[in-house]
Amino acid sequence: MPTMNMLQAINNALDIAMAEDERVICFGEDVGVFGGVFRATSHLQERYGKARCFNTPLVEQGIIGFANGLAAQGSVPVAEIQFADYIFPAFDQIVNETAKFRFRSGDLFNVGGLTIRTPYGGGISGGLYHSQSPEAYFAHTPGLKVVVPRNPYQAKGLLLASIRDPDPVLFFEPKRLYRASTGEVPEDDYQLPIGEAEVIKEGSDITLLGWGAQMEIIDRAVELAEKAGISCEVIDLRSILPWDEDTVVESVLKTGRLLISHEAPRTGGFAGEIAATIQERCFLYLESPIARVTGLDTPFPLTLEKEYLPDHLKVYEAIRASVEF
Amino acid sequence: MTTTEDVHALAFMTGDEFHIPTYRLLRQDGSLFEGADVPDLDQDQEKALRLYRAMLVTRVLDERMMAAQRQGRLSFYMQCTGEEAAVVGATAALDDADMIMAQYREQGALVYRGFTYDEFMNQLFGNELDYGKGRQMPIHYGSRKLHYMTISSPLATQIPQATGYAYGQKLAGEGHCTITFFGEGAASEGDFHAALNMAAVHEVPVIFFCRNNGYAISTPAHEQFAADGIAPRAFGYRMHVIRVDGNDVLAVYRATQAARTIAVEKNQPVLIEAMTYRLAAHSSSDDPSGYRSRKEEDAWREKDPILRMRRWLSGKGWWSDDEEKELQESLRREVLETMKRAEKRPPPPLDSLVTDVYADVTPALQRQLDALKQHIRRYPDDYPKGALSLDPGVRAEDVADKPADDDRGGA
């Protein structure tokens, strides 16, 4: 089995999807001959022609509006937004159009073929506008699916599933891990399920929940916690919307404690939704308050990035506080 | 592609260099202008009458349904009045399988393609037969079989979607194009710019059809843009463009027909600006007397596009006053009958609240629906429409908002 980094895995998934189905079309800013500013679409134009992999003008609302129309026509667009920070000009097209297309037409029309790929997250000295994690804005939008992979194997399997899913999917790629995360990835076609969390590690004292690049931070915190004799159960949520309540509930009923960690700011972050749901469904089993280790409620800073981020030490301290509550 | 030549004397350009004339074929008295190029419609009585009938059906529908809204039988309505020639004329110039992505004032396009009064009414009343399952406000029509994309309220969002849809049609290679209708107000949205630029860059078979009717709700066109309307913007995108008299059905038809040829044969987009006037209020929630004069409206009533076409048809001996009277009366009867039918039909089932959000109902949504059903069973009288589908024994008549048997619709 070949070793790939996350970009290679994504590129490989796009290659497979385009080879299999000529309706799959990739476009966005700089994705054409250049292959994308991160090279996720390398060689696709060369292989599948300019009609199926091309640069668009620099206009995010246009990219997604175009993608919505193309998907409604029956094509399978995979649109790229260069950074998740720049998805907001397309917010109206995504929230009012993409998400509501099937519902409002009574299923006469849909844009289920659409996948929107976009790099997200901090840790790369990206400052305010190359670091954001906007998943919670979209989690408040019925009709969308929101998916975040944590490693190359997941990125390929979840991206292929997203492209073939009957609903529109927002696919957030942790850019800090694009080249940093490597692993064995099957060359063959495979898919991982959307809407299902994955229990990565079983434990008995506390449940740790995260997604995307934050899973690596959680893993480092777990190493410290296990040395201190705390048994951690680790869950990768994988899909923010719809999210897998049952897997998290089952885990918390067993451990009695829950810590959720994400890079995005705390207030209105998706951890709040999870915490409220678990409190409703596991009330009598909780032995300590549900902990949230998140970014601060500030814009994402440049110089003090390390201080801002919910790193492994902050997660570790929160684990201890929860267990010792 | 940018090309430029050097100059060495300072000179700004202001945009005043661009003037676009208005293409007109038909005078208000129904005669053709001297030297007017005559469209094939001039030799096609069947098609001309199909077109005229669609304009009249639209007019009668609009007048009756606005009256029904005033009676409280309908929550909301919007008329196409004054713009029938622009909308129906353009639609008649297309292939019936070309995609139409409209704004909301284009019911005439649906009429031309054969959407029935029953289909209109089911949407307006949001009953169980509405294709949209009663989810959207009245006038948000859609028809897959007639290639008419479901309307949504956010302005201009359909314009870049039309570019994308047409790009897919180009790849499919079946010789179809997309037309997108929008008002001059919607053209101020960023989506307009995105759509036209992408269409020109990617050589897409799409027709951008702007209904410049002078007003966006209360905002007059001169507060919408400083330039000479919408048409000159096409130069900035290097796009074919024409301005037509929107109340002249022959000019609209001929221009759209030529635009379609450019789109389908050359894979190039075209912008058409139809100059017209919104004769009715913006919607049933609007009163235009607060922002424009009766005199101005009357001047435009004189330019009624339906009257102009009727005179042309009469001049050719294709239409008589008797035929006009008979058709109008039968259409009015038909509207009232279909309205009564639609009003009495039951609402969509409760389950339709959670279907079509996704292709499949998610477990979380199913839980929410189950909880709602339990709640409604406890308070069935407080949720009569929802309770109906939980208990099919309840008769539809008992839950219809306004049982209506009278004919006070006005005309």
From TrEMBL, chain A:
One of its GO terms (molecular function) is branched-chain 2-oxo acid dehydrogenase activity. Its EC number is 1.2.4.4. Keywords: Oxidoreductase, Thiamine pyrophosphate. One of its GO terms (biological process) is response to nutrient. Its cofactor is thiamine diphosphate. The keyword NAD does not apply. Residues 4-180 form the Transketolase-like pyrimidine-binding domain. The branched-chain alpha-keto dehydrogenase complex catalyzes the overall conversion of alpha-keto acids to acyl-CoA and CO(2). It contains multiple copies of three enzymatic components: branched-chain alpha-keto acid decarboxylase (E1), lipoamide acyltransferase (E2) and lipoamide dehydrogenase (E3). This is 2-oxoisovalerate dehydrogenase subunit beta.
Automatic annotation (TrEMBL), chain B:
It comes from the Bacteria. InterPro entries: Alpha-ketoacid_DH_E1_comp, DH_E1, THDP-binding. GO terms for biological process: branched-chain amino acid catabolic process. Its EC number is 1.2.4.4. Residues 381-411 are annotated as: Disordered. It is an enzyme of class 1 (oxidoreductase). GO terms for molecular function: branched-chain 2-oxo acid dehydrogenase activity. Residues 394-411 have a biased composition (Basic and acidic residues). Residues 52-349 form the Dehydrogenase E1 component domain. It catalyses: N(6)-[(R)-lipoyl]-L-lysyl-[protein] + 3-methyl-2-oxobutanoate + H(+) = N(6)-[(R)-S(8)-2-methylpropanoyldihydrolipoyl]-L-lysyl-[protein] + CO2. Its cofactor is thiamine diphosphate. It holds the Pfam family E1_dh. Keywords: Oxidoreductase, Thiamine pyrophosphate. Belongs to the BCKDHA family. The branched-chain alpha-keto dehydrogenase complex catalyzes the overall conversion of alpha-keto acids to acyl-CoA and CO(2). It contains multiple copies of three enzymatic components: branched-chain alpha-keto acid decarboxylase (E1), lipoamide acyltransferase (E2) and lipoamide dehydrogenase (E3). This is 2-oxoisovalerate dehydrogenase subunit alpha. It comes from Billgrantia gudaonensis.
